[in-house]
Design brief:
- The complex is a heterodimer.
- Chain A is mainly beta.
- Helix content of chain A is 0%, strand content 56%.
- In chain A, strands 2, 4, 5, 9, 10 and 11 form a six-stranded mixed beta sheet that branches.
- Chain A starts with a strand and ends with a strand.
- Chain B is built from no helices and eleven strands.
- In chain B, strands 2, 4, 5, 6, 9, 10 and 11 form a seven-stranded mixed beta sheet that branches. Chain B has a four-stranded antiparallel beta sheet with strand order 1-3-8-7, with no helix packed on it.
- Chain B is globular and about 35 Å long.
- Classes of the chains: A mainly beta, B mainly beta.
- The interface between A and B is medium-sized, with 24 and 27 residues.
Chain lengths: 117, 114
C-alpha cells in the first residue's frame, strides 16, 4: 500500500523565518510527487516533481525531490502571515495495465504551518 | 480555462438522512474525476474515482456511493448518513493522459452529521 508521511505535523515560526517541510514516501511505480497548500478550503497546487535533484521555485517557495532516498522538502523563505496553512504532500503512481487511466494520489496528513507576526 | 464547482458549500444533516453532493467541471472534456474526504485532523482520503461516464471505482468500503451520469458531472450519495460521514468533501479533476499531472480541487462541501 502506498504511504506518505509528512513532518513535522505542525510548526509555529515568526514572520521572516525560513521553514523546511518534509515528505517521505513509499510507493510502487512512482510517477510524481505533488505539494499543495490548503488554507480554509480546497487545496491549491504548488509544485509537481518528477525528477531527482531538480529544484522547482515559485517566489519564496521551492521544492526538491530525492528519488533515491524517497523524500521531498518544501522550503519557504522570509515567511509571511499569508503562508499560514496546511501543506499537503501527495504521490502519484503509474497505473497498472489492469488499472489503466487511474492516476490517483496518495496524500500525507499535512503539516500545519502557523506564522506569527 | 477550467473551473470546478461543488454544491452545497455547507450541509448539516441528521443521522439516517440521505445525501447528494454534486460536482461539475467546465472547460475540459473526459476528465478523471475524484471524490475525497478530509476528516478533522486527518489527510485527504480518496473515496471514489471515475475515468469516464458510468465508470466508478471505490477505494474504501463505506455507506457512500458515487455516480457519473455525464462526462463532467460527478455525484456523491448516501442512502443513510452516519455520524462518521462528517467531514470536508472535495471533488477533484485531472485531464487523463495530459502532460500536466496535477489534480485540481473544487471548493469543497463541509458536511456535519448530527
Amino acid at each position: 500500500e502506498d504511504k506518505v508521511v509528512q513532518s513535522p505535523l505542525s510548526l509555529v515560526v515568526h514572520e521572516g523565518d525560513t521553514v523546511t517541510l518534509n515528505c517521505s514516501y513509499e510507493v510502487t511505480n512512482f510517477r510524481s510527487l505533488l505539494w499543495y497548500k490548503q488554507e480554509k478550503k480546497a487545496p491549491t497546487f504548488l509544485f509537481m516533481l518528477t525528477s531527482s535533484g531538480i529544484e522547482k521555485k515559485s517566489g519564496r517557495l521551492s521544492s526538491i525531490l530525492d528519488k533515491k532516498e524517497l523524500f521531498s522538502i518544501l522550503n519557504i523563505t522570509a515567511t509571511q502571515t499569508g503562508d499560514s496553512a496546511v501543506y499537503l504532500c501527495a504521490v502519484e503512481a503509474f497505473p497498472s495495465i489492469s488499472n489503466f487511466g487511474n492516476e490517483k494520489l496518495t496524500f500525507g496528513t499535512g503539516t500545519r504551518l502557523t506564522i506569527i507576526p | 480555462s477550467q473551473t470546478i464547482h461543488q454544491w452545497p458549500a455547507t450541509l448539516v444533516q441528521p443521522v439516517g438522512s440521505p445525501l447528494s453532493l454534486e460536482c461539475t467541471v467546465e472547460g475540459t472534456s473526459n476528465p478523471n474525476l475524484y471524490w475525497y474526504r478530509q476528516a478533522a485532523g486527518r489527510g485527504l482520503q480518496l473515496l471514489f474515482y471515475s475515468v469516464g461516464i458510468g465508470q466508478i471505482s471505490s477505494e474504501v468500503p463505506q455507506n457512500l456511493s458515487a455516480s457519473r451520469p455525464q462526462d463532467r458531472q460527478f455525484i456523491l450519495s448516501s442512502k443513510k448518513l452516519l455520524l462518521s460521514d462528517s467531514g470536508f468533501y472535495l471533488c477533484a479533476w485531472k485531464v487523463w493522459g495530459g502532460v500536466r499531472y496535477e489534480q485540481y480541487f473544487g471548493p469543497g462541501t463541509r458536511l456535519t452529521v448530527t
